[in-house]
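Lab channel / #folding
Pinned by the channel admin:
"Please post every new chain as: sequence first, then the structure tokens as a reply. Keep commentary short and put observations after the output so the thread stays searchable."

First post following the new format, from NK:
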Amino acid sequence: MSLEDRDWYRAEVKRRSRPAVGVWPRRGRWSWRSWLANRLTIWLGVLIVVIAAPVVDRMMDERRAAGPDLPNVIVPSQSRPPRNCTEARSWGLQNIPRNSPHYAPWLDADDDGLACEPWPRR
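Reply from TO:
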């Protein structure tokens, strides 16, 4: 190995053993600028949450007050009962009372006067 190769090798080893700049964990103390930047970032995030929370609550209250979004009801012109509850729900029908022209006994599973009731959640 020549003297130039050996010097190059030593310089390369020394260069590669140095830590990269700006990589965590940092050695030494934080500078006041980085400390301030971290604190400002944290407080900015807290401020955004404090400001956004009431706005989002107000929007959700307005949406609840408007009522649920009802599906468009597409009922055929004839007043026949649907073949099954899937067809009734595609027409926009649910909880069909016994006096409705769309009521049919085969749609009422528990014979309580309401057809195509939603199943209770478990």
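NK: Residues 29-69 form one domain.
TO: also worth noting, The radius of gyration is 35 Å.
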